[in-house]
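> @MW can you paste both from yesterday?
MW: sure, first one:
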Amino acid sequence: MSFKELLTYILSIIPTIYLIKRYYLDSFNKKEIQDFEQLNKYFINERYKNFENESQLVKDMLCNTVSYFKGMNYDLVKYILEVKHINLFDFIKLKRLIRIGYLKPNGEHNKNHKKGINHIIKLSILYFLFILYLFTFIYITSSFLHIESELIATSLIIGFIAIPEIWLLFYTDKITSDNNAIEWYKKNKDNFVKSKFLLSDN
């Protein structure tokens, strides 16, 4: 394949890879339905209290049947459910902040959390490097390998282009969501501290 043919071929495949990623997110939406079914069965109307006399292991296993509660013990889940003013989106952001180390598990701001490079600058560098890598791959493949078989070309593209692109797309989602959660926390921190859901970082 010539440089132009290979470039056209890759550009036709890249949107397909993006759609595959979108399908993954649609699968996640199905997971949310399963979560709600579990909540409705075991948690709504304080049904979780039926497990009060069970061992800590059983109670923690119950909480881990809901993806949002994975990694959280029963006592913390119970406390969160009894805080009536917190909504799902706030809860997801707070859990993300704990996972990335911006907040401690008790809700206190982790002053040792490293800020790092601005997420826009970081993503710009990564996308620039990916584009540079893409054209380098096309140049080497078209100039030295002289591939004529579409099967071989597709295999190379999946191995050398698709996998890095999928990683980059997921990393973009992650770093953007992390940054959005931090900015949201800065704007809403005082409200959560006043309600005693989060501890003050003073």
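MW: second:
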Amino acid sequence: MKYYRQIQALLILAFITLICLWISGCNSNREKINSITYQITIISGIQMSLASAVERQMFEEYVKRKAV
């Protein structure tokens, strides 16, 4: 949990990098653009799953505190 912010920052940087690659690749063939778009989708999915995992962990800790 304590590494969530670092992981999130790295994923945001990777996302921005892929957007820049996509913009620079707009004059290239369609396969390259489709590949970069696919990579952006994967990174977004990873980031969303990390966020939901952290939310679940925070909720479990909250429930444990309330139970005690």
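> thanks! The CA atoms of residues 39 and 45 lie 10 Å apart.
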